[in-house]
Write a structure and sequence with these properties.
about 190 residues; alpha/beta; about 25% helix; about 15% strand; LRR_dom_sf
Amino acid sequence: MTERLLIKALSGGKNTKIITLNGKKMTKMPSALGKLPGLKTLVLQNNLIPKVCPELRTLTQFQDLKLREFYCEGNPLFLKQPVISTQRENVWSLQEITSRFVMNQLAENNPFIMDGIERYPQVRSMISQGKTCAICGQHFITVWLECVRFVSPPKDWKISKNLQLVPLRVLICSYKCFTQRDPNLFGIAQV
């Protein structure tokens, strides 16, 4: 049944706008999705899909966002087993320490640092990639830990009524900040 639906969708080519394959017990996303450049809505709810396929990325590039609705609730896309984190001493490179200092001084409008930055474009380039810690608010270059916080989606989003929370990416600068996080912030680990 799933194969017939996909063949029918592929025969539509760039005119195919919606694919609904919910509850089909699929274990992976169809690689044929990359051959449907006009696809606007993809419904893959309640399947057994453990990861997003690379073909979907071509449909969701931010330059020309084509896929507008993607429903994937009920798939094991996230591993739901907590991993215990052990404290490791933060050992930063001299470049990281200096970058953190410079970015935090710039945030305080230190005139000496602001004047010096104008003379060194390579330093400007490096600190332009800085991030802000979601816990302490300090600036950093090297991400110590990538986390996720689940938040309620804005009312103006076109999403499934069943979807009550969406993941929001959060970056943390150190283990110290990770231990001070709120209970709704989860670290993402490669297992």
